[in-house]
Amino acid sequence: MASKIHDVIVVGAGLSGLQAAYDIQKAGLSCIVLEARNRVGGKTWSVPLANGNGTVDIGAAWTNDTNQALIYAYTQKFGIELIKQNTEGNCIFQDKDGETHAFPYGTSPKFTGANVTDLERIRDLVHDLSVAYGSRTGSVEDYDQMSLEQFVISKGGSQKTVDMVRIWSRVMLGVEATEMSAQYFIEYNGKGGGLKTLRSDEKHGGQYLRFREGTQSVSLNLATLLRPKSIHLSQPVVSITDTPGLVTVTTSTGLTFQSRKLILSVPTPLYQDITFSPPLSGGKLTVTTSTTLGYYSKVILCYSSPWWTSLPSGLNACGLAISYQSPVCVLRDTSTSIDGQYSLTCFITGLPGTIWSKLPQHERRAQVLSQVYRLFAGTQSKDDDKEKVKEEVYNPVEVFEQEWTKEEWSKGAPCPVMGPGVLSSVGKALKEKVGNLHFVGTETSDVWAGYMEGAVRSGVRGAKEVIDVLGGERVGAKL
What we know:
Blueprint: E1 5-11, H1 15-26, E2 31-34, E3 46-48, E4 55-57, E5 62-63, H2 69-78, E6 82-84, E7 90-94, E8 100-104, H3 113-134, H4 148-154, H5 159-173, H6 182-190, H7 195-199, E9 209-211, H8 216-224, E10 231-232, E11 237-243, E12 246-251, E13 256-264, E14 275-277, H9 282-290, E15 291-292, E16 296-303, E17 317-323, E18 330-333, E19 342-349, H10 350-357, H11 361-377, H12 383-393, E20 398-403, E21 417-418, H13 422-426, E22 437-439, H14 452-470
Parallel strand pairs: 1-2, 1-13, 2-10, 7-17, 11-14, 13-22
Antiparallel strand pairs: 3-4, 5-9, 6-9, 7-8, 11-12, 12-13, 15-21, 16-19, 16-20, 17-18, 18-19
Helix pairs in contact: 1-8, 1-14, 3-5, 3-6, 4-5, 11-12
InterPro entries: Amino_oxidase, FAD/NAD-bd_sf, Flavin_amine_oxidase, Flavin_MAO
Protein name: Amine oxidase
Binding site for FAD: 16, 35-36, 237, 443
């Protein structure tokens, strides 16, 4: 049996759990954190290159310095250096037939005039609806009973537009546009300021800034602010028993811990891996069993130079590519030139990702390299230039591959998604407490859900809930 009854136990040492524990301890209450992994950070995971040239983020990677205020405040508090996402140069689009073309960053691919107009019309419609939600003025109609794809079709979207929305759905949430509620997608974007904001790499945008030493640097620094021996790693929680005034937690190692309150900071669908007594029921159970995590993988190709910025044809590529082919739907330049780290991050998500994931590792890697070659070689007019591109693509200095869906304690990324009908029926139950149990995580945030900012904000909320009940100094969001 446990030898001490803590004020609070936090399950999960990602950003939301660490933030909750920090606020609770600042309020003078006792708190420990139980983490299943052998590290802190959750989906923030930064790995150094073998050659010593910097790090790569195989999990969360971007922030900004304006509307993601809490994460930005931590970068200032901890002296974490931020670098701007490269947007200088041309993007590349790859169509269904494999044909490629370049287009300036900030513009639409070179579709026919009618298709460009239609794509921008649907983009603006989703953006306006999401901004209306975010400003709490609300949309005229609720679209929860239809999928995102059905929504686009109902608004007269062309096939080219539907195909692009499928890319949005895959790269943003790892699911197909047929699997996600249109209203959920609208609200998800609204929590971050609108579709255009979430997709932007420029000032105020979701992908404006990256972390020189990786996003895990926030989690690692935050963990040092907790009292010594507060974090217990490699302790997967298998059961939670809630009785009046006392919560008992058992881990897979056979250890037992007790507390007056508990904050659960794991992805909602993973609640099913824990035995609750009494069992979760009602809306909380429905939310748990009805939210899904998309298929999400990153393959990061590291090179000795940023060869894509000086292609033989003279095309100055910024490293952003969008593809209707598979397995890679989006490619990003994730270099840190100051450290000599030059990388292209390939996003492999949704249904194409699940198909790709079944292949042996060497075939998965071969498919990725082949597609990256076709993306850049297709912009070259001479065979000799294509050979030069091939030589560059097929000679990475290091390759990282992370399948978040196969990671035991995440099972997908970036956050749980709701299909048609779920949000309107039980969406409010997502962050509702049950007995002595409180629930946090980026998906429960009203601001920047799915992002690091949302995770930290949810941790602030969860801490305030238990502090208000147990007493102690109120701390809010002050860092």
